[in-house]
Design goal:
The complex is a heterodimer of chains A (334) and B (335). Chain A has a domain of 212 residues: Rossmann fold (3-Layer(aba) Sandwich), CATH 3.40.50.300. Chain A contains twelve helices and twelve strands. An eight-stranded mixed beta sheet of chain A has the order 6-7-8-3-9-10-12-11, with helices on both faces. A four-stranded antiparallel beta sheet of chain A has the order 2-1-4-5. Chain A is globular and about 65 Å long. Chain A starts with 8 loop residues before the first strand and ends in a 9-residue tail after the last strand. In chain A, 46% of the residues are buried. Chain B is 75% helix and 0% strand. Chain B is built from twelve helices and no strands. In chain B, α4 packs antiparallel against α9, α5 crosses α7 and α10 packs across α11. Chain B starts with a helix and ends in a 7-residue tail after the last helix. Chain A: Keywords: ATP-binding, Cell membrane, Membrane, Nucleotide-binding, Transport. Chain A: This is ABC transporter ATP-binding protein. Chain A: Its main location: membrane.
Chain lengths: 334, 335
């Protein structure tokens, strides 16, 4: 992946707010990131850190109301997805951006055949007729590793296992050859062996098709195996971002460090309790003016209360391209 | 599916036999005499003869078995004879109404069309109003349209037909004079003119019943749509870039219709049962009116036969609803 290539997706200052009866919830606060062609960006963070909401905001998948994308810019190629309007956004969804969701058991429509669900976006976006779409759907099913694809087109989702359904979801997401595939915890609902199969499949497809991927997960083990770059989110903002090797070798943010410590190890002393990060992630009822992690942070000091840290480069590359962190503290000393 | 249907049909036989016995005994044990409407001036010995002539003096089990034979053998074969010109059961006694001495099924044949036209149309109209309202109310939950729809449904639910019917008569027949107050059973549709007249006289009873039907079905439709609207597969359809129309009217509606179709199918027997109050209110001389008349006159064969026909229809449409369920939902397979 050439460093200088133009990004396929360039997100700047994205802000998403949910309006609820109890007031506003600021779920995404000034998130910026970019995705280069063919790159796999891992997005990690615990539940409620704003990972999924960020990605769904990009392509207008959040129900509005209550969700409202308040600011930012989402450049896909040379178009700003936040400005092109709902009709044009429909043309982007499924065609330029594919989405794979967490739970394959409920993500497919139970009353339609698998084939018709794969054919739908083909006919919608590629202008194919039924016969052409059926042919392409067969190829897609074969591509995601479902044997006897021709026959399986007529099957209903309930006749498939969880892993196979997730393969179908991937086939749907890839149907129109998207530039970007967003996978929202695609393996969380699957058991470990199936998880490994799906990860292998995605790795394989990425080699064959060369699309850029955003992989949302809270499993750092998965990220280590497949990602090129990792973005760590907390409280609806990016707290650290780095190439995968650098992040694991030299985590800068206390939250990242804590996350890495929570990974259970197969070696070492048995019976030791797993590390946890005490407390709950915050619910942001207003735009943050202090560091959202301060309450759970071992290194918090006065400045963390007074000022929400901006992302700053750790190395000599600009923010967003190299290793950056949003923290007042640094391991070398303040 | 076929084995399932056959098994259910076989199972229906003992169920219906038990129901028929219960109906027969219940109606028979109820106080009252078939002579209740005969003038008191008729002397007791003549009364006794009349009772004997009706066969009402026989023990209840004899009458039950005779009725069973008449219902399941003589009546169907009479129909068969009528169609094919044969004379298999000619001269054998059919189920006779104690009140009019004519065969019960002949009376039903005269009354049922009136009911089916009026109540059936009201049911269809109710469904056609209810489905769009239910769908749109759910799609725009808590919108102004939804609130009005809810109000309309509440009214349809809670206002009894004798009130709403009377109100409609006052507004549309008395004040505005658009429609007649009474339904003319004798009207025969022969030309455009009489057809218009038929439509006009049907308007008020159909509106009265249609409102009540639409209220129920629209609520079912709305809640079923709401259940499905938040499902993950809907998000998937949106993520595929499908049009909102396709998302709602194909993906969500197809799933939401499953329970609603069942409710609609289960409601069909009630059409045959007629709408007793509404029929009386508008003077529709239908099956509901026939049942009420028979009950007043202690016309046991008529009441027993009608009640049993309703039981058969209910069992039948339960089966149909189950089969529809299997056809609409691929996850349900009965074999």
């Amino acid at each position: 992946m050439p460093d200088g290539a133009l990004p396929v997706l360039d997100v700047r200052g994205l802000k998403t707010v949910f309006r609820t009866r109890g007031g506003e919830v600021h779920a995404v606060n000034s998130v910026s990131f970019m995705l280069r062609p063919g790159e796999l960006l891992g997005v990690v963070g615990e539940s409620g850190s704003g990972k999924s909401v960020t990605m769904m905001s990009l392509i207008g998948l959040l129900p509005s109301p209550p969700a409202e994308v308040r600011a930012g810019q989402v450049m896909l190629g040379d178009r700003d997805l936040l400005k092109i309007g709902p009709r044009a956004l429909q043309d982007v969804r499924g065609a330029k951006v594919g989405f794979v969701f967490q739970d394959p058991m409920t993500s497919l429509n139970p009353v339609f055949t698998v084939g018709s669900q794969i054919m739908e976006p083909l006919m919608r976006h590629m202008g194919m007729n039924r016969a052409e779409a059926r042919k392409r759907a067969t190829e897609l099913l074969a591509l995601v590793g479902i044997p006897d694809a021709q026959k399986r087109l007529k099957a209903y989702p309930h006749q498939f296992s969880g892993g196979m359904r997730q393969r179908v979801m991937i086939a749907i997401a890839l149907a129109c050859d998207p530039d970007v595939l967003i996978a929202d915890e695609p393996t969380t609902a699957l058991d470990v062996t199936i998880q490994a199969q799906i990860i292998e499949l995605v790795k394989d497809l990425r080699q064959k098709l060369g699309m850029a991927i955003i992989w949302i997960t809270h499993d750092l083990g998965v990220i280590a195996g497949i990602a090129d770059r990792v973005m760590v989110m907390y409280g609806g903002q990016v707290v650290e971002q780095a190439p995968v090797a650098e992040l694991f070798a030299d985590p800068r943010h206390p939250y990242t460090r804590a996350l890495l410590k929570t990974i259970p190890s197969l070696t070492g002393e048995r019976g030791a309790r797993l590390q946890v990060i005490e407390g709950q992630p915050p619910i942001m009822t207003a735009e943050p003016v202090a560091c959202p992690f301060r309450a759970r942070c071992a290194h918090a000091f006065a400045r963390c209360e007074a000022e929400n840290p901006q992302r700053r480069a750790v190395d000599d590359r600009p923010v967003g391209l190299g290793h950056d962190v949003a923290c007042h503290w640094s391991p070398e000393g303040v | 599916m076929l084995t399932f249907t056959l098994r259910r049909l076989l199972l229906a036989i003992p169920i219906l036999l038990v129901i028929s016995l219960v109906i027969f005994l219940l109606v028979d044990l109820a106080p009252g005499s078939p002579m209740a409407e005969i003038p008191l001036t008729v002397p007791p010995d003549v009364r006794q003869k009349m009772i004997e002539a009706l066969g009402a003096d026989q023990p209840v089990f004899v009458r039950y078995l005779l009725w069973l034979k008449q219902f399941f053998w003589i009546e169907p074969m009479t129909l068969y004879d009528g169609w094919f010109g044969t004379s298999i059961v000619e001269g054998q006694q059919r189920i006779l109404s104690w009140q009019s001495r004519s065969p019960v099924f002949t009376i039903i044949g005269q009354r049922l069309p009136q009911t089916l036209i009026v109540v059936g149309t009201a049911y269809l109209v109710g469904i056609m109003i209810a489905l769009p309202i239910g769908i749109y109310s759910a799609y725009r939950q808590y919108s102004f349209f939804d609130q009005v729809g809810t109000l309309f449904a509440m009214i349809g639910f809670s206002v009894p037909t004798f009130f709403s019917g009377t109100l409609l008569i006052i507004i549309f027949a008395v004040w505005l004079g658009w429609f007649p107050t009474k339904y003319d059973t004798m009207l025969e549709v022969t030309d455009w003119q009489s057809f218009l007249q038929q439509v006009k006289q049907m308007a008020l009873p159909v509106m009265t019943l249609g409102l009540a039907n639409a209220a129920t079905i629209s609520r079912y439709m709305r809640s079923s749509m709401l259940d499905n609207m938040t499902m993950d597969y809907v998000r998937t359809a949106r993520a595929k870039g499908m049009d909102e129309k396709v998302v709602v009217l194909r993906h969500v509606l197809r799933n939401s219709l499953i329970p609603v179709v069942t409710v609609i199918a289960l409601g069909i027997p009630s059409i045959f049962g007629g709408a007793i109050i509404t029929e009386n209110l508008f003077g529709v001389n239908g099956i509901g009116a026939a049942l009420i008349g028979a009950i007043h006159a202690n016309d046991l064969p008529m009441v027993q036969t009608l009640a049993f026909i309703f039981a058969v229809l209910i069992v039948l449409f339960n089966l149909i609803a189950d089969i529809l369920y299997g056809l609409l939902d691929p996850r349900i397979r009965y074999d």
